[in-house]
Amino acid sequence: MNALETPVGGRTVPAPRPPLRTGRRVQHLGRALFVAPAALYMLAFYGYPLVKNLVMGFQEYTTRTFFTGEAPWVGLANYEQVLGSPIFGKSLVNTFLFTAGSILGQFSLGLALAVFFRRTFPGAGVLRSLLLLPWLIPLIVSGAVWKWILDQDNGALNRMLRATPLTDARPGWLTSTTLALAAVVMVNIWIGIPFNATILFGGLQDIPDELYEAAALDGATGWRAFRYVTWPLLRPVVNVVLVLGVVYTLKVLDIILGLTKGGPANATQTLATQAYQLSFVEFDFGQGAATGNLLILVSLLFAVLYLRLSRQRAEG
Amino acid sequence: MTAPAAAPHRRSVRLAPPPPSSDGTHERNTQMPTPRKRVRVRQVLAGACAVPLALSACGGGSDAPSGGSSGAAVTSLRVLDYYANEPDNTVVQQTVAACGTEIGVTIEREAVPGDKLIAKVLQQSSSKTLPDVLMLDNPDLQQIAASGALAPLDDFGLKADGYQQGVVDASTYEGKLYGLQPVTNTIALIYNKDILAEAGVSVPTTWEELEAASKKLTQGDRYGVAFSAINTFEGTWQFLPFMWSNGGEEKDIATQQTADALQLWVDLVKDGSASKSVVTWSQADVNDQFKAGKAAMMVNGPWQFPVLDSVAGLNYDVVPIPVPKAGMTSVAPLGGETWTVPQTGDTARQAAAAKVVACLNSDANQLALAKARQTVPTKTALLAEFVAQNPKMKGFTDAVQTARSRTGQLGPDWPKAATKIYTAMQAAMTSGEAPLSALQQAQAG
Question: Is the pLDDT of residue A74 over 50?
């Protein structure tokens, strides 16, 4: 960039105007050419799929479409079908519960761990790297392992429960319609903790120690130091973690497919699993796209909310 | 990226003197004095464009049929199937290659994992790169035929005379035959001979006997019976023999007959004869339970034999799935894959492909494939000879005689009905919904 700008722009040489104009055009062209690859990349790999998905939501897009290329326009029929299906309401509520539960658990545990690891003590480094474990295992693998752990008859969790004197019950973590969503949320919290803890830990590192010393002199230690020093200074990082967390959690698919496939009896069906089911199991790509678009809309609402919040803070 | 893939776009690459592989040096070269800038920028662009172009060529170009002109002699055929695992992979490879030799063409076979096949076929449909010979799971045939991607086999003089009727139904769409299926399979009741003998329980043949036997065989951490009631098509497939044998039908599942069949499954779980986990078990999970001695009987198919035979000291046998009342017929669903000829637009290649399909379905190949892959020949005249040679397959061969195809009644609409069936099944088995009302809700939804 610098090499292009210096000979033409930068220096103030007012006298020869005409040559500068062509020079400026060249400069603009040069800039545009540098932007072009990124723009083309964005359009091809992000813009096109998004537009295609939007359009597909209004089309009868089935297996036949792939061979004939014909996708008749059906207006809002896909949306009517999707919104009218009894599973939709349930999926929407589940998506909300799953996201809210996951974020609440991931964030509070992640924050607690980040604050805990801010102190240095022997073995802190090792423990902190262990924390990353869930992040390092492929989701399909952790899904399979958790499925074993949560198995009703021979799962590790129920065996441990029986070994305690508290209960003889064997809860059906993945087989009961009341427990399955909670179990899936629990696993997703386990997966999400490393992300939250790592980013928040990074944020904590940026808070100067002097502030804590000053606060301590004023009598603010422990909880009050957290409330009046840590929390206000961590807010920007918290916002990023929460918004990214919500967007990531809304679209979680693999872990639910691995554990319950949306069952039992649709108890863990979310908008994401429903979109997958419609598109890739029933091959009704039109309805699948419609469901996916609704999911994008929900994500978009959160993104707008986030932008609003951060702008308000910047102005205030 | 293969060389032939990039070839069609060589002209655009040639605009840029340095090869596209040295992109890194281009970037540095752009920081040059103005006079040479334009040229350089164009080079950068040309270099950058070459990458996506070559990438897109990988999708379409490399898979393109080698002989587009129908006049040329056919020397090789592309075959696509999902026998990616051993031992099936080798068995099918050898059989297809032998058929190629017989017809005088070489075979380029590709095997993809089972769950990737339809995605691959759809992708090839849209890029007009379908293989010459395509294997499909039989319940998928009508949906793919409905899309127009398959050629009717009648056009090449192939007929399904002497085949089991359900097998022919599955490969027929709107009155035309689109596939020929050399072997089939189904599910039956597999039981542990030692456990039953020890408990003094005789092999159940009716629902009443099944319930009594399962209850008696349940002991400690061992359940009497295991089956898959998972919320996928696998769960539906396992439920079909119970539904069909009782007169239930997929076109309307909200009937008393289907509700009674569902009630049987609900009762087996409710009285503890089957694990509550059946709603999350795939058929492979069911097999694991049986193999580990945690289930005395199971509903499963012959493809589990290799795993079962590897367990030392496991004595098992197979009988058709128990029927509602003595004297009724057990109706099981037909499994297995059918071989088709896609519409590639090259009639000479299609004719050669049809010969391969016919060869795979010859009497000798039906018997050989059935023996090697623990399946049953589809030509009814071969069954007596087959059972004589493979006594262990008798239970499944009996079950196949009266079996039905999943798509015989609904055709391409089968997946929607299959989803309704497992939805109702799960509602009744996990949330205490009465079977009939669960079925009514699913049928309406």
Answer: yes
Torsion-angle region of A230 (φ positive above 0: left; ψ -120 to 50: alpha; else: beta): alpha
CATH of domain B188-332+410-444: 3.40.190.10
| Window from A163-167, B263-267, B310-314, B341-345 with minimum mean pLDDT | A163-167
Question: Given pLDDT bands bounded at 50, 70 and 90, which one contains residue B209?
Answer: very high
User: Has residue B125 got a pLDDT over 50?
Assistant: yes
Positions of E strands within B154-281: 172-173, 176-177, 179-180, 183-184, 188-192, 223-226
Q: Does A7 touch chain B (CB under 8 A)?
A: yes
Q: Could you give the residue ranges of the DSSP H alpha helices within chain A?
A: 2-8, 17-42, 48-56, 63-68, 77-84, 86-116, 124-130, 133-136, 139-149, 156-163, 180-205, 209-217, 222-225, 231-250, 254-259, 271-276, 285-315
A38 vs B: CB within 8 A: no
The secondary structure element, H or E, covering residue B142 is helix B141-146
Domains and CATH numbers, chain A: 2-46 (no CATH), 85-315 (1.10.3720.10)
Residue range B76-183+336-389, CATH number: 3.40.190.10
Chain A contact for B426, CB < 8 A? yes
Query: In the prediction, which pLDDT does B45 show?
Result: 41
Q: How many angstroms separate the CA of residue A109 from the nearest CA in chain B?
A: 30
What is the interface pTM, i.e. ipTM, of the complex? 0.79
What per-residue confidence (pLDDT) applies to B255? 96
Identity (one letter) of the amino acid at B382? L
Whether the Cβ atoms of residue A271 and residue A298 lie closer than 8 Å to each other: yes
Q: What is the pLDDT of residue A14?
A: 53
